[in-house]
Amino acid sequence: MAGELTVDRDRCMGSGQCTFYAPNTFDLDDLSIAVVIDQQGDSDDKVQMAMSVCPTRSIARVAAGASTGGTA
């Protein structure tokens, strides 16, 4: 699947579902907020499952070169 995985840290509640379904792609940081540790850590199926079970829908795949709306 094309695009970069991102986590909306303001929405994430740290349920850990992403780390259960795609443990080689996601982890929780010291604040129990999800982070992407390896963009290609798990299969597309596992990453898609992690995205779909996220209770706050905090995980997104952003097309290369697309703006995330943030400031640099």
According to CATH, the fold-level topology is Alpha-Beta Plaits
- Any idea what the CATH architecture is? 2-Layer Sandwich
Structural domain tally: 1
The profile of the biggest β sheet is: 2 strands, antiparallel
Helix percent reads 10-25%
> How large a portion of the residues is in β-strands, by DSSP E?
15-25%
The counted number of beta strands is 4
Number of helices: 2
Distance between the termini: 26 Å
Order of helices and strands: EHEEHE
Uncertain runs: none
Structural class: alpha+beta
Mean pLDDT across the residues is 90
Oligomeric status: single chain
Radius of gyration: 11 Å
Top-tier CATH class: Alpha Beta
Q: What order do the strands of the largest sheet run in, or round the barrel if closed?
A: 1-4
General shape: globular
Question: Which characteristics define this entry?
Answer:
72 residues, Alpha-Beta Plaits, two-stranded antiparallel ribbon, 4 strands
Task: Tell me the layout of helices and strands.
Elements: E1 4-7, H1 17-21, E2 26-28, E3 34-36, H2 44-53, E4 59-62
Antiparallel strand pairs: 1-4, 2-3
